[in-house]
Every structure is written in C-alpha cells, then in structure tokens.
Specification:
Blueprint lengths: L5 E4 L9 H8 L4 H9 L3 E3 L2 E2 L11 E4 L18 E5 L3 E6 L16 H9 L11 E2 L8 E7 L2 H13 L3 E9 L7 E4 L2 E3 L7 E3 L7 E10 L6 E8 L6 H8 L24 E10 L3 E6 L4 H9 L5 E2 L8
Parallel strand pairs: 8-15
Antiparallel strand pairs: 1-4, 2-3, 2-4, 5-6, 6-8, 7-8, 9-14, 9-15, 10-13, 11-12, 13-14, 13-17, 15-16
C-alpha cells in the first residue's frame, strides 16, 4: 500500500452497502474518485480487487491505495513481447516473464505488462481509458501464468473467485533445505515489516494468510540441500509464498529479500514460478492454464543434477 493508503474495517451494522458509497462516507475521497480507484485495482478486500458495486460485508477489511500525486502515469501501448496462453472476448491469459512489472507505478510508469496489453484490448474494457483489468499480480521477478480481464463483466467474475478462494493457483518454488515428503501448511498472519517496507513479516495482528506446499524433488546434501516444491496459496497476500516459506525455514533460492544473506545459487532472481491457474471464465467455463517453467529456472534445475528423491507433482496437497 502506498503512503496514501487507508484500511477500513466494516462493522456489523454496515454490511450490504456498495463499497463506493461506503468509502465516500468513511473517507475524504469523493465517490467518483473511489470509483476510478476501484476500477484501477486500488480498492481491495482480502487482498483481491473489487468493483465499485461490490457490497461490503461485516468483518470486511477494505484497503484503499491512493497513489501519491505526481505526473500522470503512461498507459500508452508499447511493443513488449508477451506470450499469450489463451485469449477470448473476456480475458487474456499470459505467461509473464521475469523482470517485468505488472502495473504502472511511480518509478515504473512504462515498460509494464499493462503497457504491453493496452493496444491488444483497446476499446474492449468499457472504461475511461483502455485499461486491462488486473485482478491479481505477480512480483516483478516472479514468472508465470496470469489472467487479465478485458471487460467489466470478466473483471467482476474473476475478482469474486479470488475473493471467494474458488480460483486455484499453483506455484513451483525451489527452496534451501528439505521439508521432507509429507505435505505441509503454514497458517500465519502477515503484515508489513515496520522496519523494512520491502518485507512482510509473520506477526500477531496481521492479515490471515495460509500456504500449503509439498515436495516434488530433493537435490544435494548438507548446506547445499535444495527442494523443489509445489505450492498452493490459500490466501493471496503480498509476498505471501516468499514470506511463509522463509518463516518455515525454507527460503526460496535466489530471493534477495527473504532468502539467505549469502546465496551461492547465482540465479539472479527468486526461483518462484506461477505454474498453473484454474479459474472459471465468463463464457468458457472452468479452465486450467499452465505456464512452462522459464528458461533460466529450467537451466538452474538441470545444473543441480539428478534429484535424490521425487514425488508426484500432481498429487493433492493437504
């Protein structure tokens, strides 16, 4: 959340009201400003963006991220190669490369995934500007599958699935250490580290967060022991997988924020890849999309040699 961020809890007697009207009464923002923020993905409930017409519920924790004042962000089309895994009139599913920021922000006003998609879906979003509907994000250096809405109907439908935890996200992560062959879960609240704004930390009073994982393969011995994990986040908090695995003492290989202080991998970014996404599309039903592991991650795995142990990556994680 930016310096202009606000967080508001919905009391038991306030449920049922539209979020744009509710926030207009509880903040100093106008209803039209809230509408623009919501449509640009800056109003979230349980970490998922909501539309202006979303009806608040008792107990909702609403986050409003108001970007700081500054020059208008560029939403011009840019010729940035993007691999499309699927596309219809409602959505586009892409394999986001590492080193690509998802959404324009101050310091990254161009060269983003949104800039790459603007021309492709121009005129189909039904908004003030042709803006792709970002309903979930990946960190700059995390690669893999993302679904982007091309119209308001799809945006609302996808956001509801993320809020209701019916969409299924699966990641591949290479970690230091070996959690063993049994599936595991980290159920620990997360909040922003007051001493380092780049990080999230496990702490009482934070937001509910749960991550499930299971080992696919184990490599090496001793201090260089590593394990490839299948990870399924139940919630969708900022840096959740990275923070939770570090908390469990299995930091992700190559992670500059949550990983080892001295990381000998030479990878250059965290080994975290959004591998599969199962979601129900407005007019195409439930679909599962898979993003092939990025080339640099495949090369790193190959360099580890044959695994000591393996398990079925398609098994059910507890």
């Amino acid at each position: 959340m930016s310096e202009g961020g606000q967080r508001i809890a919905v009391r038991a007697d306030e449920g049922g009201e539209r979020v744009d009207r509710f926030l207009a009464e509880r903040t100093q923002l106008s209803r039209s400003a809230i509408t623009r923020l919501a449509r640009d993905g800056h109003v979230t409930v349980r970490g998922a963006p909501v539309e202006p017409a979303y009806r608040v519920r008792a107990g909702d924790d609403i986050a409003v991220d108001v970007p700081p004042e500054g020059p208008a962000l560029s939403l011009e089309a840019e010729d940035i190669p993007i691999e499309a895994l699927y596309e219809d009139d409602d959505v586009i599913v892409v394999n986001k490369p590492a080193d690509l920021v998802v959404h324009p922000a101050y310091g990254h006003s161009s060269g983003t995934l949104v800039n790459a998609l603007v021309a492709r879906i121009a005129g189909s979003t039904g908004r003030e500007a042709a803006r792709p509907g970002i309903v979930h994000r990946l960190d700059k250096d995390t690669s893999g599958v993302m679904v982007i809405a091309k119209n308001d109907l799809a945006h609302v439908a996808l956001a509801r699935q993320l809020q209701g935890r019916t969409a299924r996200k699966e990641y591949l992560a290479l970690v230091w250490g070996d959690p063993g062959g049994d599936p595991a879960v980290v159920d620990a609240p997360l909040l922003r580290d007051p001493g380092d704004r780049r990080r999230m930390v496990v702490r009482a009073g934070g937001r509910e967060a749960m991550t499930r994982f299971a080992r696919i393969a184990a490599f090496g011995d001793g201090a260089r022991r590593q394990a490839l994990l299948l990870v399924r986040p139940v919630t969708g908090r900022t840096h959740q997988i990275r923070a939770h695995l570090a908390f469990a003492r299995f930091p992700i290989v190559g992670d500059p924020v949550y990983g080892r202080k001295s990381d000998p991998s030479g990878l250059g970014r965290q080994f975290l890849h959004a591998w599969r996404l199962t979601v129900r599309l407005p007019h195409a039903g439930e679909r599962t999309f898979t993003a092939p592991l990025a080339a640099d991650l495949r090369a790193h795995l190959a360099g580890l040699g044959a695994p000591r142990e393996t398990a079925d990556p398609f098994r059910e994680v507890a």
